[in-house]
Design a protein that fits this description.
The complex is a heterooctamer, with 2 copies of chain A, 2 copies of chain B, 2 copies of chain C and 2 copies of chain D.
Chain B: E1 9-12, H1 13-24, E2 28-31, H2 38-47, E3 54-57, H3 61-73, E4 78-82, H4 84-100, E5 104-110, H5 127-132, E6 141-143, H6 148-165, E7 168-174, H7 175-179, E8 181-184, E9 230-232, H8 246-263, E10 268-271, E11 278-281, H9 284-299, E12 304-309, E13 311-313, H10 317-326, E14 329-334, H11 340-348, E15 353-358, H12 367-377
Parallel strand pairs in B: 2-3, 2-4, 4-5, 5-7, 6-7, 11-12, 11-14, 14-15
Antiparallel strand pairs in B: 1-8, 6-13, 10-12
Chain C: E1 9-11, H1 21-25, E2 31-33, E3 39-41, H2 52-56, E4 62-64
Antiparallel strand pairs in C: 1-4, 2-3
Chain D: H1 3-10, H2 26-39, E1 47-51, E2 66-69, H3 75-85, E3 90-96, H4 97-103, H5 105-114, E4 119-124, H6 159-166, E5 170-175, H7 179-191, E6 196-201, H8 205-211, H9 217-227, E7 228-230, H10 231-236, H11 239-242, E8 246-253, H12 259-272
Parallel strand pairs in D: 1-2, 1-3, 3-4, 4-6, 5-6, 7-8
Antiparallel strand pairs in D: 5-8
Helix pairs in contact in D: 2-7, 4-5, 5-6
The chains are: A alpha/beta, B alpha/beta, C alpha+beta, D alpha/beta.
The complex binds thiamine diphosphate (2 copies), iron/sulfur cluster (6 copies) and magnesium ion (2 copies).
Residues 11, 16-22, 38-39, 57-59, 61-62 of chain G line the site of one iron/sulfur cluster (SF4).
Chain lengths: 181, 378, 72, 273, 273, 378, 72, 181
């Protein structure tokens, strides 16, 4: 793998920056190079939110993601805003709960009921980011499932491990189903 | 850091600065929150008491800088961290630290200015301020990390230089480096060289607190160690007391300047410059883009190299002068309207043509832009 | 209590952020929460026009008693 | 008056909705300030709103007057210049607890000492909201903040007492909960000539609330309701019953020569000479 | 003890005579501080004196301790660093009315609020001496100064009241005239744990005296004698008799957790964990 | 000034600054005493109320700078004056004034630094600080008078430039010029060109407070005039409101810089440079010694001339570049360790050799020293 | 009324600046002014060792009661 | 006259700076060029005090006095310190009340009882500076008596005009006597 560039986007409060950190952490655990960065809005809260991760086998110089090959969009606004930058051969993963209008694109699109499942199966919208992460990793193979779980468990608040493990499992499953299609 | 495995750890530049400070032996931090440096204060608020050190949030940046100087005089390894507006406020007391020769580290995580600017956005607009922000002639050391790993190592280095030269040292991060996360391998305690201020060997009666040794630096007693000496921001002689004489000023301010100028070894990274016909000079996060651009240029057969001043102040004059004697053109990309370029132009002395590349729209300059410039001047 | 007559209460749902303050502190329980926690004017006839919801709405999103022709 | 008219006359509607978090008390205070301005019938063209930096200090941007969003902590010093240069302007300063009591503390006590005719409203949410939750000089002892991970070592100011001791001639404390009282207090502050100061206890559910497990904005308003004791009631309560509570209402109201007028007297004297 | 011994033990005799003008009260206060230090038997090697900039702030240069002559107004902030970094040191801050109450006002109220164990002595000569006679925040209304050529428009702080309101646990006022009382007050300030503050009313015959035609240093000391009313006596006097006078003695003495100790408690707790 | 005779009057540079300010129409001054600038505050404390203006001594220099900006927004012609330590403290709010485009004059009577230094002694150590003291990229205009007469005229000019460009203008006196007395002929009111800020012609509804005209400067309404506009130190668009966008920053900060860079006419005195083979570049009081040295050199047949930057910022690049193309050597005498020399070296671009002559013993450089240097490099 | 016995009072005339404070405030009028206004110990026998002159001398120029062997 | 450089020296409080200003003022009144400067001690009060005046028919560049041709010394310290700088063909005027030890010099020395006369004849030591100024002007011819008097009267505090006029007269007389010698 040369350099995998992933953008996780949505709105503030969805935990996308945490997701980005966990993803980069997992990559590091596998001995890869990784850079994670994020955008801060003018008020650093509310509004759009964006986390970016670059995973590579070699040193990463320029640390920003310009044309991601993977875009996760967890809000309509984010989807509309960032789709343009996605590579033509890229992968778009959208949360069908928020993104109703799937724009036209040459990328492969996976529309997943991420938030819906988090709510339905776990009763906690708050872990939608972990569900998304599981699905994304499953679909892209960015990192291994094991290291991702390690990274998740080391970064979530004490006492929420089980919840997050379940969220991750749901995510993996969601991804797998898509791949099987 | 606790663990001793060589497993890389993911952390941000600001977090790495905290780790570096702890490894360097920090035991005092005074600060005032400001984006995008706040994580440094927050990290040390949590970590310092666990190491027996003290954290205090002062009423403002002026007080933070003052408390840091006071703590250092009492023997602490002391640091503060801030961003643009706070850096402006600290200037008077940074000058005091330079004049009274009080070692300390001042972190400025640069954000977009002037004034309140764009508080969460990156820029490299405080480079000249780091050198010239306080009034009067004074020495200044400033380091600019380009990676999270370097944010850690240069924080240690900043403490070492501060202790070695008895002077404030500025760690000039930019928001990109401060906030991005990378995997880094924190060094083991025993791998690190820790420099401590020279202690006086003379007994208190004979101690001249501002009598410099051949390296230009006077040994430094701590308050409370029985030396009972005087510290002032006025021009003073070797005893530390002011006598109101211009000749004392001449001696003192030249010594302060020269101790750094003559004994500080500029830190520069050179990359593929040996056979270069074109060079890029870039610092901090922009140097990452520049390195990529250089690699892309080389792929296209362009003989291009990179010089990255790690210590931006004192400016690495010799490296740039040598470079200008070697290359035809120098490209200076910066996230400002041209600050490093001023010094590069000066040092190039007409021998190489200097091209500026400036971006101030709160985005990191991309490798492509730099490459385009390289191609243009080729 | 209330005046019996329906008081006009306008909620600017574009501005409302669903904090629930109006709902919680209305002395007459005039509002019910919608799924997004924004207020639904459920019992306007109970409103006593105490104006508390209007005064306490952090988003200036509630208007009680009509426009500038309101009685207050 | 209904809020619609208030919005029309005194706000920059195109800037709304504001940036504040759901349930943030700053919006309630903003509404109260506007209502007080309306009550006092200030001429909008002759009214200037000045603030420093912070979530609270974003308020002027929504207000349709001449508005000045300055540097952190310095609002009162800028306002002093505005007022002295053009005394006919009504100058209202909006500030946060950090802005006003931390970095801006000196300007606060000096403005109070001079008794310059400004009205200052402090949005006291016991935290630095804008920078995401560090303790302020008004964060209670032992409370948590990002820079007080083991509980706050500092003890807070009684800011009203401080400003009284500094020389202010009108000092009051309100809460976001007691909105009607708050409007009265601000209106009176505007009416009074001299330095008027109104501290408003308010909620930052996002940082202060979350860090200290104080529940929702509603819970925090309820806390204000239960812990804010009106001056008269407080006077009747034994000290132990006031433990952990705070006094609200008009705390201080007196008269002293006002700064700008005093200066004008010198100018007038010169002219006569 | 005779002055000779005092000089031997606590002063840098080679720096004397000092630079102050004939009759300047700063020398009297310096002597009183030294006597209080002696009374409290502070270990000279463990005592640090910190000052800002001003005539008064030159005092530490004459004192044989670790001495720190900082920037204008910032002495308390530097001292906070010294004390926190090395709590076993006795830290005494000497400051002027300009240094402490004008540019340094914020550090003063915050040090008081934290109740950090420092003793602050303010040399209040009602003027900026060092810069040749501008008004300070303690210059009385209507008095003259080079920047108040038509009489001072400003009203002064009651600095002791301000510091009490800010949270100091020991606050007193003395004069250069009432030297014995002054030594007692400073000694007690040193003894007390927490933030101790002693304002000393003193004379600057050169600028304040001359500008306001107050006569010689002797006349100014006599004025202090006649206008400084001890706390107990003041309590018995009707308000009209206190007009134009000021209270001297111990004004406030209470107990609150001290800052450095509170912080140490956190460190200790961490170690136990 | 009252009287109208053309009789010269003896006054100091600081006093002349007061006269200049009054002639320029100052009506607000906020300050904080500091040697060696205090006479300016004292003079205006006495004079302003006689002209219906206001003087206020604020609690510190930060507040003074803030009050000046506030007063200017309310329509006043406002000024503050300080020296080294106070100048450092004012930096944050100077940046605000630059960002929010608030005209005002900041006088810095330079004293010996760094830190408290030698408060009553001369130096020229704040030249770089005047340009770079505040954080972030920003425009800066700074003028350096060399005589008492010029102290008056450049104070007027500083107000004019501030009003014209809507920006803070720094009047950089040095202690020698500030405190020496000379006979000067104050101009009559009617002889002076007074520039006032452009007023909006659009009605309030259409007023865009930060929409620049072709000269790069937006018309400025006063607070209280019915325009009800917003002023902030954040990056803002033409409406004056922040939108948090980098592109706004790019547009704004470039415009701020360019309005000065493209429209400001550098002020330079050239003396005997036409046929010069050697040139001296000197500012402020040192330029007086330099002129004498040039005369002495000419007497000895040396073809030497003087270039005196009157406006030191923006630096008169063109004049120095032209000069470097013409002369063999440039001598740069300064009462600091080499600040103007940096820019001269840069602009000389290797075409002329630059020699520094620095004195930091609190004495004015003498004509003899400069002459000796001229002879040396001849 | 003094101890009758001559108290040793030393004035450091190098440091004394002649402010006259000691002379003016000595309760026993022990000092007389010299032409330069510095104090002359004129009536040491009247001294009651109240120490006020020592305490109030702004120049730390007066020592009452001998050196460290003094009784105070 | 090319350029006359005068240094007035003594200790703080003797009014030498005022004297320097008055002298420069007088020169200006005669249409000459003049520069006056002074030295500030570290505390700007007490200790040594020094005022310098340059009077010239043409523009004055370098504003400082390095080697005065006239030195007034009103204290022993000042005399000892500044004599060295006096030109060999210069004039030294000393106040015999303070300067007891006249050092050896090739300059012409005038030892005058300046302070003594001020005290004896006027009862005010404070006007010794004006006496000194009168004598200096008389001896050096730096400016005319008339303009000097004008300058004095315009610069002294209201109500002290007569006293200063007398002091000036005494100074003139003192100078004249010396010249007559
Ligand atoms: C000189 C300076 N220091 C620090 C900051 C960062 N800063 C911005 S807002 C703020 C605190 C705001 O707290 P407060 O005034 O209580 O307002 P709130 O956000 O809580 O309403 C700080 C520290 C700054 N902008 N400028
Ligand atoms: C930042 C700064 N501003 C101003 C000054 C100038 N300054 C020096 S001392 C002083 C005032 C001193 O007054 P005070 O503290 O009352 O001391 P005093 O001389 O009266 O004893 C001032 C304004 C300075 N040194 N630094
Ligand atoms: S108080 Fe306002 S913002 Fe909150 S829920 Fe009600 S209408 Fe919405
Ligand atoms: S006005 Fe009062 S009663 Fe009516 S809805 Fe609002 S809060 Fe309820
Ligand atoms: S962070 Fe706190 S203060 Fe700021 S807007 Fe949100 S709730 Fe309000
Ligand atoms: S100027 Fe005033 S305060 Fe300063 S030494 Fe002289 S008398 Fe004392
Ligand atoms: S000790 Fe008392 S009685 Fe004796 S000389 Fe001094 S003041 Fe007078
Ligand atoms: S009090 Fe001291 S300085 Fe004053 S006259 Fe007496 S001995 Fe001299
Ligand atoms: Mg707050
Ligand atoms: Mg004072």
């Amino acid at each position: 793998m040369a350099q995998l560039e992933i953008r996780l986007s949505g709105f503030g409060g969805q935990g996308l920056i945490t997701a980005g950190i966990i993803l980069a952490d997992a990559a590091i655990r596998e001995g890869k190079q990784a850079v994670q960065s994020q955008s801060y809005g003018p008020e650093a809260r509310g509004g759009a939110s964006k986390a970016e991760v670059i995973i590579s086998d070699t040193a990463i110089d320029y640390p920003k993601v310009k044309e991601p090959s993977v875009l996760l969009a967890m809000s309509q606004e984010a989807c509309d805003k960032y789709l343009e930058s996605l590579r033509d051969d890229g992968i778009l993963i959208i949360d069908s709960y928020y993104v109703k209008k799937v724009p036209e694109t040459r990328a492969r699109v996976y529309s997943l009921p991420i938030t819906e499942l988090a709510r339905e199966k776990l009763g906690k919208v708050i872990v939608a980011n972990i569900v998304a992460l599981g699905a994304t990793v499953e679909i892209t193979g960015a990192v291994g499932q094991g290291t991702l779980e390690e990274a998740v468990l080391s970064r979530v608040p004490g006492g929420t491990e089980e919840l997050n493990r379940q969220a991750l499992a749901i995510g993996f499953q969601l991804g797998r189903k898509q791949l099987e299609k | 850091m606790g663990e001793n495995e060589r497993q890389a750890v993911l952390m941000s530049g600001n977090e790495a600065c905290v780790e570096g400070a702890l490894l360097a032996g920090i035991n005092f931090f005074a600060g005032y929150p400001i984006t995008p440096s706040t994580e440094i204060a927050e990290g040390l608020a949590e970590r310092l008491p666990r190491h027996g050190g003290k954290f205090i949030q002062m009423e403002d940046e002026i007080a933070s800088m003052a408390a840091v100087v006071g703590a250092s005089l009492a023997g602490a390894k002391a640091m503060t961290a801030t961003s643009g507006p706070g850096f402006s406020l600290k200037q008077e007391n940074i000058g005091f630290a330079a004049m009274a020769e009080v070692p300390c580290v001042v972190v400025n995580v640069q954000r977009y200015g002037p004034s309140t600017g764009l508080p969460t956005s990156p820029a490299q607009g405080d480079i000249m301020q780091a050198r010239w922000g306080t009034h009067g002639d004074h020495p200044m050391i400033a380091l600019m990390p380009a990676s999270v790993q370097e944010s850690l190592t240069l924080t240690i280095e900043a403490f070492n230089l501060a202790e070695k030269f008895r002077t404030p040292v500025i760690l000039l991060l930019d928001e990109v480096v401060g906030h991005m996360r990378e995997g880094i391998v924190p060094p083991r305690k025993e791998e690190i060289m820790i420099k401590k201020r020279k202690k006086p060997t003379a007994p208190p009666e004979e101690y001249l607190p501002y009598r410099a040794e051949p390296d230009g630096v006077p040994p430094m007693a701590n308050f409370g160690d029985g030396y009972r000496f005087h510290v002032t921001g006025l021009v003073h002689d070797e005893t530390g007391f002011p006598r109101g004489r211009g000749s004392d000023g001449d001696y003192l301010v030249r010594r302060l300047t020269n101790k750094v100028k003559n004994h500080f070894v500029p830190m520069v990274e050179e990359y593929l410059t040996e056979d270069a016909e074109i060079a890029v000079v870039a610092c901090g996060s922009v140097a990452r883009s520049a390195k990529r651009a250089v690699n892309l240029g080389r792929e296209q057969g362009i003989k291009v190299g990179l010089v990255r001043p790690i210590s931006i102040w004192p400016f690495p004059e010799k490296a740039i002068k040598d470079l200008a004697g070697k290359v035809r053109a120098i490209v200076v990309p910066e996230m400002n309207l041209g600050q490093v370029a001023l010094e590069v132009e000066r040092c190039a002395c007409g021998k190489a043509v200097v091209y500026r590349l400036n971006r101030i729209d709160a985005e990191l300059i991309t490798p492509d832009e730099i490459l385009a410039k390289i191609q243009e001047v080729k | 209590m209330g005046t019996g007559k329906k008081v006009r209460i306008d909620v600017n749902t574009d501005w409302c952020k669903g904090c629930g303050i109006c709902i919680a502190f209305c002395p007459k329980k005039v509002f019910d929460p919608l799924p997004d926690n924004k207020p639904k004017v459920a019992r306007p006839e109970d409103c006593i026009e105490c104006m508390l919801c209007e005064l306490r709405c952090p988003d200036l999103a509630i208007n009680v008693g009509g426009g500038s022709d309101g009685r207050k | 008056m209904a809020v619609k008219e208030l919005l029309d006359r005194y706000t920059r509607m195109e800037k709304l909705p504001h940036i504040w978090c759901p349930g943030c008390g700053h919006g309630i205070i903003l509404g109260s300030v506007l209502r007080a301005i309306q009550r006092q019938n200030l001429e909008p063209d002759k009214t200037t709103i000045v603030s420093g930096i912070g979530c609270s200090s974003r308020a002027p941007g929504y207000m349709k007057f001449d508005t000045l969003h300055t540097t952190h902590g310095r609002a009162l010093a800028f306002a002093t210049g505005v007022k002295l240069a053009r005394p006919e302007l009504n100058v209202i300063v909006l500030s946060g607890d950090g802005d006003c009591a931390a970095i801006g503390g000196n300007h606060l006590i000096h403005a109070a000492r001079r008794n310059i005719n400004l009205t200052t409203v402090v949005f006291n949410n016991s935290i630095y909201g804008m920078t995401s939750g560090q303790y302020s000089p008004l964060t209670p002892h032992k409370r948590f903040a990002t820079t007080a991970p083991y509980g706050n070592v500092d003890h807070p100011f009684d800011l009203c007492q401080l400003v009284i001791a500094a020389g202010a001639t009108y000092v009051a404390r309100g809460t976001a909960y007691h909105t009607q009282m708050l409007i009265d207090l601000i209106a009176k502050g505007i009416e009074r000539k001299g330095f008027s100061f109104i501290e408003v206890v308010t909620q930052c559910p996002t940082y202060y609330g979350r860090k200290n497990k104080l529940g929702s904005a509603i819970d925090m308003l309820n806390w204000q309701k239960e812990h804010g004791v009106p001056v008269k009631a407080a006077a009747k309560l034994p000290p132990e019953k006031m433990e952990g509570k705070f006094v609200i209402g008009e705390l201080h109201c007196t008269q002293r020569p006002e700064y700008v007028e005093e200066y004008q007297r010198i100018i007038d004297r010169m002219e006569r000479e």
